[in-house]
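Saturday, quiet lab. Running sequence design on the structure tokens for the scaffold JK sent over.
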């Protein structure tokens, strides 16, 4: 039986909707990039972390330990702890009031966090601002990738979803530029950097008023006519009957399964849940956020001066943005698995090379010579490059497309919360790990990259070109390992919606 053909064309309205929604990623990326730069600014350290500033002034201090401070790490990591908790509330919000209002709430929390952080006079204000940022990130990272996946035509689903990650990388790059500029604004440059987070949040706020709600979300909430009208609007054609019928079937099945979190415990839900959680954990254990959070701090540890370290972060940020375009153009042609496996090889070589250079040449005191320091920057760039076209964007894409509708928001909440939990752990532990493990920290991440590659080879199916509501029959039941989760079940029709 031939697969139904879903007609669509890209209109200016739908293209603008993609871009505006993707600002949720820019908001997230700006925060990732801004925190590392701010923690390397002397004015910021003098006001909130004077002990670290004093330690930094002593040239004989251990290179690997000069920034080892739990409170400083809490400044970065507290956001992700808040995002972890809020992602479950965001899941409920997506179900009850829709993706669009949830995106609106994300931008509101983020603007509040930007205002409080920029005005902070004490440590508790700084941390509370980060928590507000975290709630915004939790809501945005839950709603935006789901929204993009649900409004994207099937042949562009991967590319459209990756707009979120592209926006994350652009946000990181902009943050690095902002930090480079504000580092020269004494003594309040750090306030400008933190307050600047309000700008992408304001754009997302306006965008959330402009975009339409996703058709599955409308139909799920018994607004069938509005759902069909929205589908016509985002597809740019009137003939949407085949696709709308699939959405109706999916929503009908979902309506019979009210307890989405409980349904995740069924063995039929094991494959997408395991994939969603593991891919998020692996994304963090590549070591990418350790590099992105603390790039300026890391480069200072290698012997770069403050301005030079920020400039090096700008370079890695530019590489990150450019390489994400590779994913946009390749993901729906090459497929998910090939991109992930190629990146594992490139990331492994880069991490091992950095580890060897530091182990041999960077002692507890002193610094690398210019040639070796430049080589480290190059290997950091090749690492960031491969991550940007693979584990970065696909970490958000794959979980958003593999759950059936009845468990989609709940399953994706587990994916987001897993990401935030391990981002929190890495952010909270990295500087201490670098102090105690020194160059061996890069070998630690290298070992994880090997495990990730084996995971892709044996457990990750290819989802390129498969309708999101046809994953069970065409992906999970055909996989040599995961098909065992569906043996002996008579209700597989509840998971097949096409």
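Result came back. Writing it out in full:
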């Amino acid at each position: 039986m031939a697969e139904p053909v879903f007609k669509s064309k890209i209109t200016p309205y739908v293209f603008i909707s993609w871009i505006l929604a993707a600002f949720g990623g820019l908001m997230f990326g700006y925060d990732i990039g801004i925190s590392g730069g701010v923690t390397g600014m002397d004015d910021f350290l003098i006001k909130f972390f004077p002990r670290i500033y004093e330690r930094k002034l002593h040239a004989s201090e251990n290179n690997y330990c000069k920034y080892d401070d739990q409170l400083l790490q809490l400044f970065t990591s507290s956001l992700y702890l808040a995002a972890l908790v809020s992602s479950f509330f965001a899941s409920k919000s997506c179900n009850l009031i829709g993706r669009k209002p949830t995106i609106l709430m994300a931008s509101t929390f983020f603007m509040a966090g930007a205002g409080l952080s920029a005005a902070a006079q004490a440590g508790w204000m700084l941390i509370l601002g980060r928590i507000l940022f975290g709630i915004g990130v939790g809501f945005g990272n839950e709603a935006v990738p789901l929204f993009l996946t649900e409004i994207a035509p099937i042949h562009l689903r991967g590319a459209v979803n990756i707009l979120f990650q592209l926006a994350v990388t652009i946000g990181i790059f902009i943050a690095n530029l902002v930090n480079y500029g504000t580092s020269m604004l004494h003594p309040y440059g750090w306030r400008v950097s933190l307050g600047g987070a309000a700008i992408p949040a304001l754009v997302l706020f306006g965008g959330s008023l402009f975009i339409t709600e996703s058709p599955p979300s409308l139909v799920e909430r018994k607004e069938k006519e509005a759902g069909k009208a929205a589908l016509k609007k985002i597809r740019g054609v009137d003939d949407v009957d085949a696709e709308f019928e699939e959405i109706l079937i999916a929503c009908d099945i979902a309506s019979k399964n009210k307890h989405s979190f409980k349904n995740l415990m069924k063995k039929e839900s094991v494959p997408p849940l395991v994939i969603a959680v593991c891919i998020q954990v692996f994304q963090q254990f590549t070591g990418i956020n350790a590099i992105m959070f603390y790039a300026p701090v890391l480069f200072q540890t290698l012997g770069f001066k403050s301005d030079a370290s920020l400039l090096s972060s700008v370079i890695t940020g530019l590489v990150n943005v450019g390489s994400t375009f590779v994913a946009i153009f390749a993901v729906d042609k090459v497929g998910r698995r090939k991109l992930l496996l190629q990146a594992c090889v490139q990331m492994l070589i880069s991490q091992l090379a950095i580890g060897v250079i530091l182990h041999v040449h960077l002692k507890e005191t002193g610094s690398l010579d210019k040639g070796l320091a430049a080589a480290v920057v190059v290997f950091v760039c090749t690492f960031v490059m491969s991550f940007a076209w693979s584990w970065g964007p696909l970490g958000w894409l794959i979980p958003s497309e593999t759950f059936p509708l009845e468990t989609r928001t709940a399953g994706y909440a587990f994916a987001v919360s897993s990401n935030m939990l391990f981002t929190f752990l890495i952010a909270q532990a990295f500087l201490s790990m670098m102090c105690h493990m020194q160059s061996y920290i890069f070998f630690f991440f290298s070992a994880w990259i090997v495990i990730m590659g084996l995971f892709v080879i044996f457990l990750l199916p290819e989802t390129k070109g498969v309708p999101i509501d046809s994953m069970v029959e065409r992906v999970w039941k055909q996989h040599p390992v995961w098909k065992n989760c569906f043996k002996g079940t008579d209700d597989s029709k509840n998971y097949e919606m096409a």
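Notes for JK: The chain has 22 helices and no strands. Residues 491-498 have pLDDT under 50 and may be disordered. Ask whether to fix the surface positions before the next round.
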